[in-house]
Amino acid sequence: MSISHARIAINATTPVQVTPTDDEAATSCTLQVQNLGDQAVYLGGAGLTNVSYGVSIVPGGAVTIANLAPKDEMYALSASGNSYVGVLRIVR
To answer: Which of 3, 8, 44, 49 could form a disulfide with 54 if both were Cys (CB 3.0 to 4.6 A apart)?
Structure first.
């Protein structure tokens, strides 16, 4: 099991991948993403936009997503301007 964390810079125009990209031997991944900014943060797939997203996280809020497959990709986008998310990754 591998546990890692990161503070990731995001913006309102280009989705940023928050899932791990370097652990091909993993069988599953659990993510916790916390909104560190003062605007909403959106989570979703590669086509994520501020009007088409899977989950919205309020400022200071967090969401946990369990049992992602190794090839699954999750992205984050800020509702407005530049911001940060805190990401905790547990890879098995």
So the answer is: 44
